C-alpha cells in the first residue's frame, strides 16, 4: 500500500512522468459497466488496478456483442463493452467462496488502497468481505460500493439496470418528443448514461477519499456508498431545479430546448445542423446570416423568452431557409458570425472530424491476438502527468500468476496448488 503519496512511482520505461495515482493499488471486484469504468479512470491515472474475476466465467460484459475480431473471427471475451472499461488493468481469476481463494483475497486487501465492488447490497457480508470486515483487515482501505439503490432504504435489495434508473430518476420523462407529436412519449437516452455517470462519480469519490486520507495523515479509509438512482437524480441538475423552484414539470421538447430558441436541429440540403442561439446578440447575427433581418425587429421574437413562447411561429419561418445550402456551408457561415452551430453527426462522421482527429480522441492499443484494438482517449489532458494507454483490456485471468507472484510473493508451486484447489 502506498504511504499516502500519490506520485511515489518513478515513471515508466518510456521515460514519461508517473501518473497522478502512480503507486496506488486498486482491487476491482466489479462487473459490467459502472464499477469497471471507475476502475479504468483510476488505471488511466496511473493506479495498479487488479481486476478480480470469477474463474470460468469472468466479467459478464465479456459476453456482450459486438466483439473485436482476428482473422474474421470474433475474439472470445473481447467484447466492445469489455474493451470500453478495462484498459490499463491486470486481470486475475479468484474464487473467494473457497477458503484458499478467500485467504488470497484478504492478502490482496492488505496490500490495497482501494476496493471497488458492485454486488447486491449486503451480499458480501456472508463472506466477511463487507466494508466492516475488510476495514478490520486494512484500516486504510477506501471501500467503494456501487449499487442500484444504495446500501440503505426499502429498495436496497432490488436488482436493476441502467434503463430502470433512467425511468425512476425522471430522465426518461424529460427525453423524447411531446405526447402530441408523432413518436411522442418518454424515451431512454441512447446509451448507458446512468452507468457512465456513476462510474465517473465513483472515481471522483475515491480520489477525494484518498486525498482526505493523505491530508489528515491518518491510516484510515472510509466506505463510499454510491447509488445509480442517487447519481442520476443529482445529474438532472437544472432540470430538476426548474421543477423544484416552480412546481411545474418541464415538458419534453424532443430536440428543441426548454429554455432557448432557436436551439434545435435543422434539415439542410444534405444532412442536419444544430443551432443554439443563446442571447439577443447571437439572434441578431443569426438573422443577418440567414438573410432575414426583419425578424430582428419583429416584436414576437424580441427576446429569448418571447422566442420560446412563439416557437411555433418562428421555426416554420426558419426551417425552409436551411434547405438552400449544405450543412458544411451553414456551419462555416454561422460559425464565422459567432453563432454556436455544429453538424449532427453519426458515429462514422464523428471520428472523421478534423477537431476530433486533432485532439487524438481515437487511439489504438496493441492487442496480443487482434494486433491492436481501438480505444477512446481519456478527456483529461494533463500538462505534467499525461494519461497512459499502456495495455489493452486484459484477457480473463491473464495476470493471475504475475500478480500473486509479484504482489504476494507466492511461488510457482503455491500458485499451482491454488489452481488445483479451484481457488484461481
TrEMBL record:
Reading the lineage from the top rank, the first entry is Bacteria
Question: Does the keyword field hold Transferase?
Answer: yes
Q: Which InterPro entries match?
A: CoA-transferase_III_domain, CoA-Trfase_fam_III, CoA-Trfase_III_dom3_sf, CoA-Trfase_III_dom_1_sf
Q: Name one Pfam family in it.
A: CoA_transf_3
Query: Where are its TM segments located?
Result: none
UniProt keyword Amino-acid biosynthesis, yes or no: no
Q: Which UniProt keywords apply?
A: Transferase
Q: What is this protein called?
A: CaiB/BaiF CoA-transferase family protein
Give the species: Paralimibaculum aggregatum
Amino acid at each position: 500500500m502506498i504511504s499516502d503519496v500519490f506520485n511515489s512511482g518513478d515513471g515508466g520505461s518510456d521515460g514519461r512522468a508517473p501518473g497522478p495515482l502512480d503507486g496506488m493499488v486498486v482491487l476491482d471486484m466489479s462487473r459490467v459497466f459502472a464499477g469497471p469504468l471507475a476502475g479504468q479512470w483510476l488505471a488511466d491515472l496511473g493506479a495498479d488496478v487488479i481486476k478480480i474475476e470469477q474463474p470460468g466465467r469472468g466479467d459478464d460484459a465479456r459476453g456482450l456483442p459486438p466483439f473485436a475480431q482476428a482473422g474474421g473471427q470474433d475474439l472470445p471475451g473481447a467484447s466492445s463493452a469489455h474493451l470500453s472499461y478495462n484498459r490499463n488493468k491486470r486481470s486475475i481469476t479468484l474464487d473467494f467462496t473457497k477458503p484458499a481463494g478467500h485467504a488470497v483475497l484478504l492478502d490482496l486487501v492488505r496490500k490495497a488502497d482501494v476496493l471497488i465492488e458492485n454486488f447486491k447490497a449486503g451480499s458480501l457480508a456472508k463472506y466477511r468481505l463487507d466494508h466492516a470486515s475488510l476495514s478490520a483487515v486494512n484500516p486504510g482501505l477506501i471501500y467503494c460500493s456501487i449499487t442500484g439503490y444504495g446500501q440503505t432504504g426499502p429498495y436496497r435489495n432490488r436488482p436493476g439496470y441502467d434503463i430502470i434508473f433512467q425511468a425512476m430518476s425522471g430522465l426518461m420523462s424529460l427525453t423524447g418528443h411531446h405526447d402530441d407529436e408523432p413518436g411522442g412519449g418518454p424515451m431512454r437516452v441512447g446509451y448507458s448514461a446512468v452507468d457512465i455517470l456513476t462510474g465517473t462519480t465513483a472515481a471522483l469519490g475515491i480520489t477525494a477519499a484518498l486525498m482526505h486520507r493523505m491530508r489528515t495523515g491518518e491510516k484510515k479509509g472510509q466506505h463510499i456508498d454510491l447509488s445509480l438512482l442517487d447519481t442520476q437524480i443529482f445529474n438532472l441538475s437544472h432540470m430538476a431545479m426548474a421543477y423544484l423552484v416552480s412546481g411545474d414539470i418541464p415538458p419534453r421538447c424532443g430536440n428543441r430546448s426548454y429554455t432557448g430558441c432557436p436551439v434545435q436541429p435543422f434539415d439542410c440540403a444534405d444532412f442536419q445542423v444544430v443551432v443554439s442561439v443563446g442571447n439577443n446578440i447571437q439572434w441578431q447575427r443569426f438573422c443577418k446570416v440567414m438573410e432575414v433581418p426583419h425578424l430582428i425587429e419583429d416584436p414576437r421574437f424580441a427576446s429569448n423568452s418571447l422566442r420560446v413562447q412563439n416557437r411555433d411561429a418562428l421555426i416554420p419561418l426558419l426551417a425552409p431557409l436551411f434547405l438552400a445550402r449544405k450543412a458544411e456551408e451553414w456551419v462555416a457561415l454561422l460559425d464565422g458570425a459567432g453563432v454556436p452551430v455544429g453538424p449532427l453527426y453519426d458515429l462514422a462522421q464523428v471520428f472523421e472530424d478534423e477537431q476530433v482527429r486533432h485532439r487524438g480522441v481515437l487511439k489504438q492499443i496493441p492487442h496480443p491476438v487482434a494486433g491492436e484494438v481501438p480505444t477512446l482517449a481519456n478527456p483529461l489532458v494533463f500538462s505534467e502527468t499525461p494519461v497512459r494507454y499502456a495495455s489493452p483490456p486484459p484477457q480473463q485471468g491473464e495476470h493471475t500468476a504475475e500478480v500473486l507472484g509479484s504482489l504476494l510473493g507466492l511461488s510457482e508451486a503455491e500458485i499451482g496448488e491454488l489452481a488445483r484447489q479451484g481457488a484461481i
